[in-house]
Design a protein that fits this description.
Elements lengths: L2 H27 L7 H12 L7 H8 L3 H13 L3 E5 L7 E5 L1 H24 L5 H25 L1
Antiparallel strand pairs: 1-2
Length: 155
C-alpha cells in the first residue's frame, strides 16, 4: 500500500472510529448530559422538521432508520422530557413529534459545536485549497452514501 493510501486509510479509520464519541463527550462537557449522540441527532432532526414533515415516517426517512427503531428512541426522549408526541388531527394514524424547550437548548448547543468544528477546519485549510478539500470530502461522502444505497438495494 502506497504511503498516501496508508495515510488516507489511517485518517478515515480514526475519524470514523472517534468522531461521534468525541462529539458526544464534548457536548457532555458543555452541559448536555444524559443523551447519546444518536439521541442528540434525533433531537436535531425533530428541531429541523417543519410541521408537515414532523411525523414519524418522515423523520425515520430523514434519519435513515426504521419507524420501529425511531419509535423506541422517541419514547425514551419523551420520557426524558425532550420530545412531545401528538396524534394528527386530520389523520389519526399519523403521529407528529415536536421538540420541548429542553430539546431546543440541546439543539442550540449541538449547532454551536458544528459551527466551531466547521470553522476550525476552514481556518486550517488555505482558502485557495478549500474547493479541492470540499471535492475530497464529497468523494468520501459519495462513497459511503453509495455503500449504504447498495446495502438497501440488497434487502
Amino acid at each position: 500500500m502506497a504511503t498516501q493510501e496508508k495515510v488516507i486509510n489511517q485518517i478515515l479509520v480514526h475519524l470514523f472510529n472517534d468522531l461521534l464519541r468525541i462529539e458526544e463527550n464534548t457536548l457532555r462537557q458543555e452541559g448536555v448530559s444524559g443523551l447519546s449522540i444518536r439521541e442528540i441527532h434525533i433531537i436535531e432532526a425533530v428541531c429541523a422538521a417543519t410541521e408537515a414533515d414532523s411525523h414519524m415516517s418522515a423523520l425515520a426517512a430523514r434519519l435513515r432508520v426504521t419507524v420501529g427503531s425511531l419509535t423506541v428512541a422517541v419514547n425514551t426522549l419523551v420520557r426524558k422530557g425532550y420530545l412531545d408526541r401528538q396524534r394528527s388531527q386530520t389523520d389519526k394514524r399519523r403521529v407528529h413529534v415536536f421538540p420541548t424547550e429542553a430539546a431546543r437548548a440541546v439543539e442550540l448547543c449541538h449547532r454551536a459545536y458544528h459551527q466551531r468544528m466547521t470553522g476550525a477546519v476552514m481556518a486550517a485549510v488555505p482558502p485557495e485549497k478549500l474547493d479541492t478539500f470540499i471535492q475530497g470530502l464529497m468523494a468520501v461522502n459519495d462513497y459511503f452514501y453509495d455503500q449504504d444505497t447498495l446495502k438497501e438495494d440488497q434487502t
